[in-house]
């Protein structure tokens, strides 16, 4: 490696990582918006929503892979390598479970319930706050705004717990055991998406505590 390349390798790469995280956040917002819109106007016979979720999930995989490549190529990072790894993986998990939720809705031929759209709205709100938190994380100039977004995400996750509980109570009042099993499975996948969003919020909060 030439002296110029060595010098370049040791330069800060804040822009590279933050640009990638902003792309990830933007993709999650777009994905969750389409998912929510799809739940509001759900048509089991139209699988375009599932195909779009699959496309977004692949985009997220590519972006996550690029973040890991940058970790391997650069010695200096804007914050701990372990935190970057955890944050990238956590963001990817949100997309994975969102896609899984859509997939099982179609595979099970699950009749939509009001809880589906309630969950999808909470997921969308979580992704908007993740986008805001990552934007304000850049340069560590706005820690208060980052923490506020994380608090909102935690609040949405708590609401999601209630949506799950109430949905299960209502579901178990029905007399169709097969339908109960299918819808329960989907509701639990949807709730996991909000759990993953809360995990990301916790990771971002830990980064702020270390560096802000």
TrEMBL record:
UniProt superkingdom: Bacteria
Transmembrane segments annotated in the record for this chain: none
Family: Belongs to the UPF0111 family.
Matches recorded under PANTHER family: UPF0111 PROTEIN YKAA (PTHR37298:SF1)
The protein's name: DUF47 domain-containing protein
Organism per entry: Chryseobacterium lacus
């Amino acid at each position: 490696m030439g002296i110029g390349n060595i010098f370049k390798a040791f330069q800060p790469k804040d822009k590279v990582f933050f640009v990638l995280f902003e792309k990830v956040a933007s993709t999650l917002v777009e994905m969750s918006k389409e998912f929510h819109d799809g739940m509001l106007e759900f048509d089991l016979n139209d699988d375009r929503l599932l195909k779009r979720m699959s496309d977004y999930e692949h985009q997220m995989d590519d972006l996550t892979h690029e973040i890991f490549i940058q970790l391997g190529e650069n010695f200096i990072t804007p914050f701990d390598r372990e935190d970057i790894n955890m944050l990238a993986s956590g963001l990817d998990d949100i997309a994975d479970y969102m896609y899984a939720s859509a997939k099982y809705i179609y595979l099970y031929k699950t009749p939509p319930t009001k809880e589906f759209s309630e969950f999808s709205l909470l997921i969308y709100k979580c992704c908007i706050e993740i986008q805001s938190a990552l934007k304000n994380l850049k340069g560590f100039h706005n820690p208060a705004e980052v923490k506020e977004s994380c608090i909102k995400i935690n609040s949405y996750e708590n609401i999601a717990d209630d949506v799950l509980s109430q949905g299960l109570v209502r579901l178990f009042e029905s007399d169709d055991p097969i339908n109960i099993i299918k819808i329960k499975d989907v509701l639990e996948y949807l709730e996991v998406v909000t759990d993953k969003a809360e995990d990301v919020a916790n990771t971002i909060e830990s980064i702020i505590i270390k560096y802000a």
